[in-house]
Structure formats: C-alpha cells, structure tokens
Design brief:
The chain has 412 residues and is an alpha+beta fold. The chain is built from 17 helices and twelve strands. The strands form four sheets. The chain has a five-stranded mixed beta sheet. Strand 10 and strand 11 form a beta hairpin. Helix 6 packs across helix 8, helix 10 crosses helix 11 and helix 15 crosses helix 17.
Length: 412
C-alpha cells in the first residue's frame, strides 16, 4: 500500500485506475476518456494528492514523448511519482533513463551499441540456445503435477540473457536470479527486498573492480574501459548502469512471455496459424506488445515551460502521464483495437509497447528477439501446452499495477 488517500468528489479521479476483477484488460476508464474529446487530456489524482494531466490518445502521447519542453528528470518539482517508494527513489543519482538531453543521449550512447538491431541479430543463436536449454530443463523435470511456467521457464530467459551481455560469471547466475526475484516478486518483505537490492549493488561494485583488472568482451568491461578509466563516469555510475540493465524490463519480459502464452491459448486459431507458418512470429510479437503494454507507467514527464497538448494548457511545473496502455488501444489508430489479431495490418504507427521517442526502450530489439525465440519453439515443442487451472483462477498482479501474471500453472 502506498497511501490511503481517497479523492474527494471535487477532485479528479484516482489514478492508477483499477482493472476489472480477474481481468488482463486495461481499466475501462481509458476507453471512456478516449470517447470524450473534452477528456483526452484531463487531470487525475495520485496517491499523494497531486493532480497531473493524463494523456489517453495515441497522437497526444506521441507528441508529448518527443517534446523536449517536457522533462524526464524525476527530481524536478511536479514530476508525477506513482508511490512513496518512487518518490524516495527519485532522489537517488539518476541513470540515463531519468535524464534529459544532452546528458540522456550522452550516457545512453555508452550502452546502446550492444543493443542495436544488428548486434542483437548477431546474438540470436545465443538467445535461442538459452531458450532451448531452459525449455529442455523444464521438460526433463516432467509435469506429473502442474508446473509454474513463470518459475520453470519465463523467469530465467531474460535474466540469463542479460547476465551474458553484462559479463557476469555463469557460476553466479542462480545467485543473481534468486536475489533479483526477491526484490521483484512482491512476496518478499520490504526488508528482504531492500537487502536483495543492496546485495546486487554490492555484487556489481565488486564485478566492476574485477573488470578493471581483467576486462572481457561485455558491457561492464566496455563501460570500465571506455568511460570509467577515461574519467567520463565514476565507479558508482557504472554500477548503477549495470544494475539498471539487469532490473529494467526484467519483470516486464517475464510478464510478456506469460501473456503471450495466454494470448495464444485464448486464440487457438491464431496458434494453429503460427505453428503452420513460423514467419508469423514477428507480427505475433508486434501484436502482443501492442495489445498488452506491460510497462504502462514509465512514460511520465513534467513541463519545463507552459505547453499546450491536445488543446489543453499545461503550465510549467505540472506533471504529465502519457498512458501508453490507452494509446495502444486507440481505435482511431488501431481498428478493432480490443481484438488480438496477429494478422493485423500495420503501417508506420507505433504500438507504444516499448515507449516512444528519444526514451524508447534501449533494449527493444533484445526484447523482441527474446520473445520471437520463445514463441518460435515453445508451442512447437509442446503442442499440448495448456493451463492447469481456469483462466479466471490465475493469480494476477494487483489490479492497479502493470498487467501481469504472478504464477502460470501449466501441463503438457
């Protein structure tokens, strides 16, 4: 619980909105706001009583996310934070994801070379091997009783792949996976999560020291050699960037694997099409990332000067939440937007699953490659994969948090 704040009737509605019980669909308020032109840009009330503007239309969201008059710096007054923990974390030294240009691009360029489409394509054999090995390990253990696909498969995929990019020793993988799970799975106490967080930071601190002595062909060594030893970054910056690369998007990727499984089981005709035509995996992943925006609260800004968005004046110091989850269901851009369709005809419009603009996810091509690798082999290897419980009985993430599945019991 972040706060017991309840919006009086005179205040704008509380945000985040609440999904319907046992539903993976976005809150209905998004569609209601999109249907009323006077509310395309409207205020909401956050946990602390602040009232930033919420953008729900695709065009307004895209325009806001490329507008350099809006700031990503979380320590600016008026920046909308989603919880007390977020507000406290905003006081920490930022990495590039919470910087404005030119600092943002300067630091982003230090890592993005390892995440370009070309480099990720060269890594696909390794990614495919990680997926295949994890799938084999799960199958060997059998399914005499329901198997949690999260623990047995999905959790390891993004973790093991990013460990390889960072340059962590293979012998440390289980330790790192355990600590990262403790800090993110929601079942640990606040103290346990905090301790796991500190242990990971300490671990990366020691690893940076090791890479200073014995550099290799990996991201941490690259940062040490090109940025730390040249004086462009301090050691704590390298540690924070390495930590960011580990944790940012990890839970999101796990959820996207789970949601992809559910989407295909919900649409057996499309699953049959995918099994018949492996080339459909790319449009499937594209549609998956449009339909389920599993990281929907990251695109927040604060106005540096007075701006007008969607006809609404937003004054300097006022916060903005660009609701990418809503924008990806905008019927004016995506006909039949609430229908999952891997055959959807797409143009140049952005699906918003990875954000938009200069701050679009730096690891987008990695995420796509991981999802494409998973859904090129999972059902092909296990054609009888099915839920072990009714869909409505699945344990989902809290209804005001990002859409996700806590556990996914399956049989095959």
């Amino acid at each position: 619980m972040t706060s017991a704040f309840t919006a009086p009737s005179t205040l704008p509605p509380l945000f985040p909105f609440t999904r319907q019980p046992r539903s993976l669909e976005p809150p209905i308020e998004y569609a209601q706001l999109r249907s009323d032109p006077s509310k395309h840009v409207s205020r909401v009330t956050l946990w602390d009583g602040s009232t930033p503007f919420l953008l729900v239309k695709h065009q307004d969201i895209c325009e806001a996310l490329v507008d350099n008059r809006l700031s990503k710096e979380r320590n600016r007054p008026g920046f909308p934070e989603m919880s007390a923990g977020g507000k406290a974390a905003a006081q920490n030294k930022p990495t590039f994801v919470d910087m404005d240009s030119p600092a943002h691009m300067n630091q982003r360029r230090m890592v993005e070379g390892l995440f370009t489409k070309e480099h990720i394509d060269s890594q696909r054999p390794h990614i495919q091997k990680v997926v295949a090995d994890q799938l084999d390990e799960m199958i060997k253990k059998g399914c005499d009783k329901p198997v949690d696909l999260v623990e047995a498969f999905a959790l390891a995929i993004p973790s093991y792949i990013i460990y390889g990019i960072l340059g962590t020793p293979k012998s440390d993988l289980k330790y790192l996976t355990s600590k990262n799970a403790t800090r993110t799975n929601g079942s640990a106490t606040a103290s346990e999560a905090s301790n796991a967080n500190k242990e990971l930071l300490d671990y990366f601190g020691a690893l940076v020291e090791e890479k200073m002595k014995n550099p290799a062909d990996d991201l941490i060594s690259k940062l040490v050699q090109e940025q730390l030893l040249t004086g462009h970054l301090a050691k704590e910056d390298v540690v924070q960037i390495a930590f960011l690369m580990l944790v940012a998007g990890n839970a999101t990727m796990v959820n996207m694997i789970n949601l992809g499984v559910i989407a295909l089981l919900d649409h057996p005709d499309q699953l049959r099409d995918l099994l018949k035509d492996p080339s459909l995996v790319k449009p499937f992943v594209e549609e998956l990332c449009r339909y389920y925006v599993a990281s929907s609260f990251a695109t927040r800004r604060v106005a540096k000067v007075d701006v007008t968005i969607g006809g609404q004046l937003i004054k300097a110091g006022e916060g903005i939440i660009a609701a990418t989850q809503s924008g990806s269901r905008d019927e004016s851009v995506f006909p039949n937007a609430d229908v999952f369709d891997l055959h959807r005809q797409r143009g140049i419009e952005a699906g918003l699953g990875f954000g938009y603009g200069p701050h679009e996810c730096v690891a987008e091509w990695l995420a796509r490659a991981e999802l494409e690798s998973v859904f090129s082999v999972l059902f092909q290897t296990l054609p009888n994969l099915r839920l072990a419980v009714k869909k409505e009985d699945l344990e989902l993430t809290p209804s005001t948090k990002d859409i996700g599945v806590v556990a996914l019991p399956v049989l095959w």
